[in-house]
Design brief:
single chain, mainly alpha, 2 domains, about 80% helix, globular
Length: about 450
Amino acid sequence: MDPGADAMNQMVKRDLWFHRGTWSWTFTALLVCSTCVGTVFASAASVGAAIARVNSEAMALELQSLVSVLMAFIGITACAVIATNTRLVVLSQSRSHALWKILGMPPRKIRRTVLIQVTVLGTIAGACASILAPVASLLYVQTWAETGLPVSGPPAYSPSVLFGTITLTIVFALAGAWRPAKRAARVNELQALRDAAMPTSHMTKSALFAGACLVGLAGLCFFTGVIDGIYADGEPDAIVAAMLMLLAAALALSAWTLPATLACWSWFVRTQALAWHLARAAVRQRTAQSISASLPYALAISLIGTLYGSVAAAGVEANGIGMVLGLILPICIAGGMGTVAMCGPQRRSDARMLETLGVARKTIDLTNAIEGASYGITGLVFGWFFTLSSSLVGSLLLGMPVIVGLGHLPWGLLAVLTTCCLAVPTITAVASGRLKREARV
């Protein structure tokens, strides 16, 4: 073997071991998300086998419809969270990638190495998830009982569950890592080192184009509903489609929308407390690299709130909460913990510097708690804005009292999500940034 290539491989292995904590959090997020996706596949396979035994075409069609709706929810959420975590784990190693290039590694090999790392991680996570998913489906499939489908079948270990879970996990992981890997290979060494020290987040042309197209499609949905007289019949379908497209546009433009949300609510906080100003500086520095820390929480509230808010505007109670909450909540918790915990080394480095400057440890812990809460609050403000806007717009277009629409929102579900969105990032930030107490002589 070429000695130079062998040295490069050893360097990559050492870097991989050095960043093992970051990779571990990413693997955990991928494992939870892919298990939730696989649980839908396994539940569908189990129920489908039971339907085949009774030979009911109506139940088969109902199962197809249910799985399509659930995969729209769970698939989009899992894709966003997995891609967010893999993107962040690649960006967090930009300094190592720059050093690889300085030491002579070809750009193509850098990109190939990063993508292979992410692919292997996604494959392992997907394979483990395909084993766990049928077991998890035993509990999750019970939430389908209200649909009238047979839910008492045994767990389904089938090739389709294995293939579908692994494939989607790899695709979602590469979707997040592809662009940072290309940038790691393309950008010159000095620029890469500057980006690692002073990260910046840019709006891509593809995201801008997607956002503009989605806004246009949302306007078309609203206009079509008026022309066809759909709203006069009390049908919220066009409103649901339009609001979901607006939400997708806002998420596609998250490099603008989420920092703007953070700036808006933090402007109202008027305090001279040291912990607040330290936390705000930390949040600004982290979000300059990636807004990923707030995305899972924004997605959790806004996706469920937008759909149920639009439906509730027609005076309809939201059904099937357990089907959605049972998988959306673990995905967003795992993804949110991963994105916050991945900044743990930076947080501990900042804590050591502050302690050297004489800042009390209680103040440092409070700073970390405020930083974590800031990510959750940003997601909550974003999500509740879309939830209430969906209910308000739907009520106005359908001619329903606004209070009636608000009364039919799933307040219990939203309260659980709100609590989780505040507690999870706060606890994670404090735990990942805490320094070990040294023994006093």
